[in-house]
Design brief:
Chitinase A, domain 3; mainly beta; Thrombin, subunit H; binds zinc ion; 4-stranded antiparallel sheet; 5-stranded antiparallel sheet; 2 domains
Length: about 160
């Protein structure tokens, strides 16, 4: 069958940035399984896979806007060190969940200068074009249970009993 809304797609992938660095890959592991049409993978890749079948290999260049979005300078904020009370020494690279008006958001400490800490709420891949090399290994219909849950069960899927 073809990749379409509510199909379960299994694929192997290698993700590189424009510098050619490998950011992620399923090589040597189970293929990734995802439920198509639910926004479970980046939208640019989902669009490119529409209508494809098992055995298809493709290279997809996804612009930042169709991956993790443009880098948003307003998500970079200065926070006084006292806001991190009880955490001990705060260092660049540490990750926290910040409570924001839009709900919890993952932030990373990008800089520590004196008593001011810079946190960045952008996705680590925001502002980056992504290049996917993909091989589709299987396409099947989702079960009713998978559709209810919004994710794939079984090999490569969501690990819950
Ligand atoms: Zn489930």
């Amino acid at each position: 069958m073809q990749v379409a809304r509510d199909a379960v797609v299994l694929l192997h992938y290698t993700l590189t940035n424009d510098a050619g660095e490998v950011l992620d890959s399923s090589e040597g592991a189970e293929p990734l399984a995802y439920l198509h049409g639910g926004g479970n993978i980046v939208v640019g890749l989902e669009e490119a896979l529409e209508g494809k079948v098992a055995g298809d290999k493709l290279s997809v260049a996804v612009p930042a806007e169709k991956a993790y979005g443009a880098h948003d300078a307003s998500l970079i904020q200065q926070v006084p060190k006292r806001a991190f009370q009880g955490i001990g020494e705060v260092k660049a690279g540490m990750r926290f969940t910040a409570q924001t008006e839009q709900g919890p958001r993952q932030v990373v400490v990008s800089r520590v200068v004196g008593d001011m800490i810079t946190v960045d709420g952008n996705h680590p891949l925001a502002g980056q074009a992504l290049n996917f090399k993909v091989e589709i290994t299987d396409v099947r219909a989702a079960t009713d249970e998978e559709l209810t849950h919004g994710h794939v069960h079984g090999p490569g899927g969501h690990p819950h009993g």
